[in-house]
Amino acid sequence: MPRRQVIAALGIVLVAALAVTAFADAARSGEGQAARSNLTMIAPAAAGGGWDLVARESQQAMRTGNIVNTVQVVNIPGAGGTIGLNQLAGLAGEETTMMVTGTVMLGGISQSGSPLSLADTTPIARLAEDFEVIAVPAASPFRTLEDMLVAWESNPAALPIGGGSAGGIDHMVAAQLAQARGIPVENMVYTPHPGGGELTLSLLSTAAGTVGVGVSGYNDFRDLVESGQLRVLAVVSPERLTGVDAPTMDELGFPQVDLVNWRGLVAPAGITPDERAELEAIAREMVATESWSEAVERNRWVRSEIYGEDFEKFLVTEQTRIDDLLKELGLA
């Protein structure tokens, strides 16, 4: 392995190790305390991505709403969220920790063959739906999605598509679009990134090995879109996103590209019914705050709240749906 790749690999291992250590310290700090006193929120991805955004918006809403005294956010990136899931599994019975989850984690579980699944957690709440976009740097020659697709068709290997973890929603959206355009999915070159921050750095770089097209949640790109550094070619949502001058996949003739990224919260397995009810109450109070309403509007989310057993049933059917879709797309 070239020296540069060795250094990069060691860096990833070090970051993961530090994150796990920080998580263990944060979890220990809550031992013996009720969730209302001290709550740890796990964002199972690097800072700057969608899960991190949900965790920090939740933290802000809980603080400003005087719902929880102290809320800590801990990032544990890697493997489509399954490293964070593994850490959560080690806290069975710990009632002062919740983890952000969503469609990406279901893909990570399916593709990695993880022995753990969301059935090994205590489902608390589904909060909102978040929408994917396809974006390019402002200097890109692709002015429309059709421009990009023509180039992609002619030489898929020459146009790597960047996104989050392999098997996650970004990867599935790219594969759905390839299928819809008649591009063999096996010819697609997909470059995974540990978080939205790393993906945007790659999109803005002209160095070898970086990508010229990115698929991610709108909020991973929002600041750079608003500053004019990135251009959105298409949004994967039922309706146009407010303030975003880009057509939907339906408008562009690709209704089969339709994946929505929901966001939710789970707790460790083994907590008591009363502890679960308390965490559900915290989630309900959080989404009722003005701070959360502002976050929903600012981040162009759509509320989709379900709780407890209803959320648990949803996770079972959703995991099956994602497993089947990954097989259909040739990604699992």
UniProtKB/TrEMBL annotation:
What are the protein's UniProt keywords?
Answer: Signal
One Pfam family hit: TctC
Any keyword Signal? yes
Coiled coil located at which positions? none
From what organism does this protein derive? Pseudonocardia kongjuensis
- The identity of this protein, by name, is Tripartite tricarboxylate transporter substrate binding protein TctC
Task: Give the gene that encodes this protein.
Answer: tctC
InterPro entries attached to this UniProt entry: BUG, Bug_dom1
- Family statement: Belongs to the UPF0065 (bug) family.
Region forming the signal peptide: 1-24
| Domain of life according to the entry | Bacteria
